[in-house]
Amino acid sequence: MNVRTRFAPSPTGLLHVGGARTALFCWLFARRRGGAFVLRIEDTDRERSTQASMDAILDGLRWLGLDADEGPFFQTDRLPLYREHVERLLHDGKAYRCYCSREELEAMRDAQRARGEKPRYDGRCRHRTGPSPAGVDPVVRFRNPTEGQVVFEDLVRGPAAFDNRELDDLVIARGDGMPTYNFGAVVDDLDMGITHVIRGDDHVMNTPRQLNLVAALGAPPPRYAHVPMILGPDGQRLSKRHGAVGVTRFRDDGYLPEALLNHLVRLGWSHGDREIFSREEMIELFDVADVNRAPASFDYDKLGWLNQHYVRQADPERLGALLAGQFERMGIDMSGGAAPSLLARVQRERARTLAEMAEKSRFAFEEYVEFDERAVKKHLRPAALEPLEATRARLHALADWEPAALHAAVAECAEALSLNLGKVAQPLRVALTGAAASPAIELTLQMVGRDAALSRIDRAIARVRERSGQS
Ligand code: GLU
């Protein structure tokens, strides 16, 4: 069988990590079997669909590298197809027009509730005869079987059975002719030859309804796999309250797509106790049948750990370009400063995300506003004056602003003054960055650059003098 999966988001919000994981599972399943992954945008809810959401979904998928073999197809471009199928069902007596008004339906449900029954459409228009009421745009309802069961084998959840008596007559087309989600999805799954519907388990209850529609349209059904939802670290459904949930937000916060994919694949799926999976390994090993039934928890710490792993391995040129994007977002002008790839090389061991890396490299382009007072107290003491002045003179005379020469200059100063290296490097570090922590001193000097370094050392010398004057 030629496997065909689809990801079918509604553009009514961000591409959430839950949706991204569904897309990943569909993509992996198709890739592993040499099948096709179809992207379908379910945009028939015109009121709630937005262009911004569409862009965020496409953008997020592109960033994650979940490339579609076919699509994106937009349901609003396919309206004649749904209409044709509605007509066919009407013609075959498998669907009927319903003229019930909102008020009538409300009253019907109230009465059902009052009798202690579950509110559901009671089929009152099923056998309607006579002229159509004027001025009403009828909806079209599916004539759901009233007896028997819908039985299927969920690839994740195992065997499932639903009583038809529990299912009422579903609206398949609204008054304006728009298909409802359940109908559009079924028509498209059949028309697009989808063999495996992999989606979130919030759709489990839709599956028996969709299977009845598939049967009415006279087609063999696809297989279904419902993957469990993603929880936050506290066991509640993952939401904004837990942190970032939109895929593009992770990108903007400086995560690498391979880290997010790696974390997503592990949510509900495992392969022994292995944690790291490249894309190729995921494709080789993933099977939807191995997905766990139990909900999985999104773990921000684990994601950070994975990100650090991938950041350490990434090519400095690529990291540099991403870092440049972070600086741009922070509104920092990098022109004339250190090369981003240099920063990436220096900082990649010390940061979990590119945003953190950029924050820690800020001093390379921007002079600190204030010294960190604790660092001043500890390192810009009167005793720092001599080493600062000596290093300034040596650095000023240095022809070659390269790490080896910079290191030698600082080391020679320490030796000449009979101080250990720290006594020279720490005040210098505070002078260059305003604070007491930064990469190796020669790299810090290189990142700041000659002119800025000398002027910041002057600023620190002035600060020490001022402090000595006061004391
Ligand atoms: N548009 C639906 C959603 O975003 C798709 C559900 C499905 O995969 O069938 O939830």
Short description:
By secondary structure, this protein is mostly helical. The protein has five domains: 118 residues, Rossmann fold, CATH 3.40.50; 94 residues, Glutamyl-tRNA Synthetase, Domain 3 (Glutamyl-tRNA Synthetase, domain 3), CATH 3.90.800.10; 72 residues, Glutamyl-trna Synthetase, Domain 2 (Glutamyl-tRNA Synthetase, domain 2, Orthogonal Bundle), CATH 1.10.1160.10; 49 residues, Helicase, Ruva Protein, domain 3, CATH 1.10.8; 96 residues, Arc Repressor Mutant, subunit A (Orthogonal Bundle).
Structure description:
It contains 19 helices and twelve strands. The mean pLDDT is 96. 37% of the residues are buried. It folds into five domains: 118 residues, Rossmann fold, CATH 3.40.50.620; 94 residues, Glutamyl-tRNA Synthetase, Domain 3 (Glutamyl-tRNA Synthetase, domain 3, Alpha-Beta Complex), CATH 3.90.800; 72 residues, Glutamyl-trna Synthetase, Domain 2 (Glutamyl-tRNA Synthetase, domain 2), CATH 1.10.1160.10; 49 residues, Helicase, Ruva Protein, domain 3; 96 residues, Arc Repressor Mutant, subunit A. Helix content is 47%, strand content 11%. Helix 11 packs across helix 13 and helix 17 runs parallel beside helix 18. By secondary structure, it is mainly alpha-helical. It has a three-stranded parallel sheet. The chain has a three-stranded antiparallel sheet with strand order 4-5-8. The structure holds glutamic acid (GLU). The site of glutamic acid has 7 residues, from loops.
